[in-house]
């Protein structure tokens, strides 16, 4: 099987989904690129991270659609097209820009089905480049999936590797609910084996990235490889851990997490977002509520501090949890 | 509209400072000294300087992701800015903001802004404060041709008219928003007319010509200071670099940048004008150049030597206070 980067795996999923289903189209800022430009090289860009590259050339201007800088209009247009039977995949360049189009995502797209008495569906996918790691500072580094997870009606996906990204995106596109798809941008260049053919990964089914007896570690997105690094390093000290990557935060595979915690008796939850009202607290609360009797040590939460993401490389390195912090947390709950 | 000798020298010095700051920033990024995403203002210097030469510290500006030029033109400390780009704790924003968030509120700089069209609404607030205080101040927002398609920009323009506040919307048309041309992204043929449709006067400037911007800004700012409502400035001028450092610039026409650098360079144009009028001599302009080069050199060596932030500083300045800790 060929190794592919996460960028290429997502790109391949988009090509295949568009070829397979005429109702799938892509819309966003510079998803084609060079529209209206004197160079005439329309379609040369494929998104600022190159994820939609080649789609314009393969599918033309009706299905790979550049927009002005208008996030509310992009999401609204995707939502509206989905309500009437299309399967749009919109791109909002950086997840932080949810700030601009929050209403269309949360109050419109996310609530249609419920408020219309279950008589509609909105199969729109919104893709975002998510998270820190590029010294991009406070308005281009946030992992907004934790916030969006709190809104019923939206499905939220956070892949941590190329294989999952492809399968989850294909699932997202054929899913009949609105899906927010957060791509950790520091992982775009990371490669692993990815099948050429189409396949889907069901939502709400966690991946066991490592299996072990002493502690359960739950991590999201770019924290998954870091947690794996921490766990591998602890093996030398005779500590073995389950590493669970939920892959979707809504729906969340609570069974996998609880079963693992019941078996290991310990839990460390890792996320790159700030701690308050976040996923680490959410999952810690779940375990405290439903697996308390099996706990042998304190539940540890590893997250960014309660601050915006700093610019300076040293500060950002201190901000985003690393393997050392994850190792320390595992040891603390073992102590 | 005439400027005295001191004013002319100052305007030239400001433009030259921006040019050298940006060119040197480009070099330092290539050398791996500056992290993150950086958007250079090179070529558009006359826009920022032509507007800001009408302002003092009590007037405010709000800037964009392409903000170095606006901040320098408004009087931000160049040495502190360079240290900020290098991510030092001695930077103007203690290394927390970097290129996209340079701010200096004491100088009336309400921050560069990483959200396209995040600035105009905030600027309306600063203008509203000026109206309430009746202090004759104006609030300027700089934003790009891409920003005028964003709802926040429309809302800000309309609110400014409704409230009759002294806001000036400076729209810098450099033809591209990232990789997309304005001809594609704006649906109507006449962006000026569309903006005037909000109900305020819009003055057009040639952004390669300092004097053209200076004069348009004089009219717009005078209108705003009169207190009857906002005004707009449309300044047209291409940028000399890519959208961000590292942009392959597929959207450019062959020879486009050479043509801009040859025929639409505000520094060249300024020098040509001085040669024509004799208001400033070549020697006087050359002296400014050397001064500026020395300043940029000092800024870069200072930034390289400046203290690096420590991990504890991550959580400083999130709040001024946070109740009982
Ligand atoms: C709300 C929002 N959407 C998208 C972006 C990504 N982005 C950064 S700069 C830019 C283009 C801005 O174009 P324009 O306003 O014309 O300014 P210019 O870069 O040409 O100076 C885009 C799309 C952003 N920063 N914020």
UniProtKB/TrEMBL annotation, chain A:
UniProt keyword list: Oxidoreductase, Thiamine pyrophosphate
SUPFAM superfamilies membership: Thiamin diphosphate-binding fold (THDP-binding), TK C-terminal domain-like
Any Pfam family: Transketolase_C
Residue ranges annotated for the Transketolase-like pyrimidine-binding domain, each copy included: 4-190
Record's keyword annotation contains Oxidoreductase: yes
InterPro entries registered for this protein in UniProt: THDP-binding, Transketo_C/PFOR_II, Transketolase-like_Pyr-bd, Transketolase_C
Gene Ontology molecular function, alphabetical: oxidoreductase activity
The organism's place on the tree of life at top rank: Bacteria
Function: The branched-chain alpha-keto dehydrogenase complex catalyzes the overall conversion of alpha-keto acids to acyl-CoA and CO(2). It contains multiple copies of three enzymatic components: branched-chain alpha-keto acid decarboxylase (E1), lipoamide acyltransferase (E2) and lipoamide dehydrogenase (E3).
Stated name of the protein: 2-oxoisovalerate dehydrogenase subunit beta
Annotated organism of origin: Halioglobus japonicus
From TrEMBL, chain B:
SUPFAM superfamilies: Thiamin diphosphate-binding fold (THDP-binding)
Gene Ontology MF terms in the entry: pyruvate dehydrogenase (acetyl-transferring) activity
Keywords, in A-Z order: Oxidoreductase, Thiamine pyrophosphate
Example of a GO biological process term: pyruvate decarboxylation to acetyl-CoA
Cofactor(s), by name: thiamine diphosphate
Domain Dehydrogenase E1 component: 13-311
Gene3D superfamilies, sorted: 3.40.50.970
InterPro entries tied to this protein: DH_E1, PDH_E1_Alpha_Subunit, THDP-binding
Name this polypeptide is given: Thiamine pyrophosphate-dependent dehydrogenase E1 component subunit alpha
Species per Swiss-Prot/TrEMBL record: Halioglobus japonicus
